[in-house]
Amino acid sequence: MKMSSDGLKEALEKLKDSGVRMTPQRHAILAYLFKSKSHPTADEIYRALEKDFPNMSVATVYNNLKVFLEVGLIEELLFGDDSSRFEVKHEEHYHVVCRKCGHIEDFISPCLSDMESLAEKEKGFIIDGHRVEFYGICSKCQQEAKLD
């Protein structure tokens, strides 16, 4: 799915085709996910939208995220910080995670997809996915460490 306004339109159509009724809050949550580059938690989404939707609760955000997951529009990511993070499903990619500040960035590498094919061949599995994360210290935290 494209990460653009066209991608958002496609996602809205997919929800409609799945029989999901569109509410202003649901639209706002989905639009926020499409424009976000930060892999937000449900609480972060809530805080970002609460001024525009003062009657919306954190539970509303969680419930809508569950709907988006069930329809296959988003992915839930767990990085060991006990917080589920969310992103719109798009091309196969991986994540680079800062151990110090928790910053997450997407990373694309075609050679890791080759490893999936190799695992299928060598082990006789039908591989339907994989997950890879890289951990380290981001450039911002490296700069801050030099200043200390």
From TrEMBL:
<feature type="binding site">
    <location>
        <position position="101"/>
    </location>
    <ligand>
        <name>Zn(2+)</name>
    </ligand>
</feature>
<dbReference type="InterPro" id="IPR043135">
    <property type="entry name" value="Fur_C"/>
</dbReference>
<keyword id="KW-0805">Transcription regulation</keyword>
<dbReference type="GO" id="GO:0005737">
    <property type="term" value="C:cytoplasm"/>
</dbReference>
<feature type="binding site">
    <location>
        <position position="130"/>
    </location>
    <ligand>
        <name>Fe cation</name>
    </ligand>
</feature>
<keyword id="KW-0963">Cytoplasm</keyword>
<dbReference type="GO" id="GO:0008270">
    <property type="term" value="F:zinc ion binding"/>
</dbReference>
<keyword id="KW-0479">Metal-binding</keyword>
<dbReference type="InterPro" id="IPR036390">
    <property type="entry name" value="WH_DNA-bd_sf"/>
</dbReference>
<feature type="binding site">
    <location>
        <position position="138"/>
    </location>
    <ligand>
        <name>Zn(2+)</name>
    </ligand>
</feature>
<keyword id="KW-0408">Iron</keyword>
<dbReference type="GO" id="GO:0045892">
    <property type="term" value="P:negative regulation of DNA-templated transcription"/>
</dbReference>
<dbReference type="InterPro" id="IPR036388">
    <property type="entry name" value="WH-like_DNA-bd_sf"/>
</dbReference>
<comment type="similarity">
    <text>Belongs to the Fur family.</text>
</comment>
<dbReference type="GO" id="GO:0000976">
    <property type="term" value="F:transcription cis-regulatory region binding"/>
</dbReference>
<keyword id="KW-0678">Repressor</keyword>
<dbReference type="GO" id="GO:0003700">
    <property type="term" value="F:DNA-binding transcription factor activity"/>
</dbReference>
<feature type="binding site">
    <location>
        <position position="141"/>
    </location>
    <ligand>
        <name>Zn(2+)</name>
    </ligand>
</feature>
<keyword id="KW-0804">Transcription</keyword>
<keyword id="KW-0862">Zinc</keyword>
<keyword id="KW-0238">DNA-binding</keyword>
<protein>
    <submittedName>
        <fullName>Transcriptional repressor</fullName>
    </submittedName>
</protein>
<dbReference type="Pfam" id="PF01475">
    <property type="entry name" value="FUR"/>
</dbReference>
<feature type="binding site">
    <location>
        <position position="98"/>
    </location>
    <ligand>
        <name>Zn(2+)</name>
    </ligand>
</feature>
<dbReference type="GO" id="GO:1900376">
    <property type="term" value="P:regulation of secondary metabolite biosynthetic process"/>
</dbReference>
<dbReference type="InterPro" id="IPR002481">
    <property type="entry name" value="FUR"/>
</dbReference>
